[in-house]
Design goal:
Distance between the termini: 46 Å
Radius of gyration: 17 Å
Oligomer: single chain
Number of strands: 0
Number of domains: 1
Number of helices: 8
Order of helices and strands: HHHHHHHH
Shape: globular
CATH architecture: Up-down Bundle
Length: about 210
Amino acid sequence: MIIVGSGIMAENLTDDTGIMLLANTIATGAGLFVLITVFSDVSGAHFNPFVSLAMFLTKKLKGNLLPSYISAQILGCLLGVALANFFFEHQIFELSTKSRDGVHIFTSEIVATFGLILIIFGSLKKGSVVVASCVAFYITAGYWFTSSTSFANPAVAIARTFTESFTGINYMYTPVYILAEIIGALFAVFVAKKILFNNRTRDKTIS
């Protein structure tokens, strides 16, 4: 809702793509910080299926919770895009025609998701406010340093297929984004296990 709604509002207020992206970026970063801070003690503030998958693969989330988490995340994103479209008098669901193709975008989305998952693992022990800050700042930066604008979330990619706005993605490219995201997530889990978790084990041994 925040991503799509702020994108539509930005489109309504300006024709300058740079200003649209800036407005969309600020709203998304601010929204992420608030939502993660508020819901971290409820569900771990999982809004991303591949974050939940990464937590499952590192034994930080029980396997029986994974299907319900992923279902809630996808349904939540679809409800969010429906509300955002409704707020601004668009059709509740409309297929996007926005092209987001190319190997450069595919690679950029791998890096975006890799960075997100690794940052979450790296900041987990420091508390929910630190995690919220790190994720919000990273995604805020990611809007600008990646050509994919850092979706880094398959539920978001699916939902953004259903908005014909600045933030949309043509359904032809949604599977490519999701493939890039799963590659990035799995690579992040591998690196986290090799670097972050090993270092913590060594620290405990030394102490």
